[in-house]
Amino acid sequence: MSESLVVCDVAEDLVEKLRKFRFRKETNNAAIIMKIDKDKRLVVLDEELENSNFSFFNLRKTFIVYSYKYQHDDGRVSYPLCFIFSSPVGCKPEQQMMYAGSKNKLVQTAELTKVFEIRNTEDLTEEWLREKLGFFH
Question: Pfam families attached here (predicted)?
């Protein structure tokens, strides 16, 4: 018998937080890190990061929405909103399927267009992100 794919909804307060995050006025790098509450079957807020406590090491989680200050080669600056997904390591297959099954729902709900998947979170560096964003600019 095969497991059916579980798609978790996105918590209402998280939807509102993501909407506000999209239109934030600050020019620093910031991230919203999310996780799945497997009992409620909801994507919920895990943590918010700003420049002061920020490093790519902190981003080595599963669901991340990241506002990144992107300096273009021609000197322009933009602030793309990136969704970075990594499959959870060291958890039960059922939980991995919940994350994989909920990824698209989260992307649609938050209206994200720059969606990146990374297999090994050790590879998540600023250089990796700049390379991925280079395809959009």
Answer: Cofilin_ADF
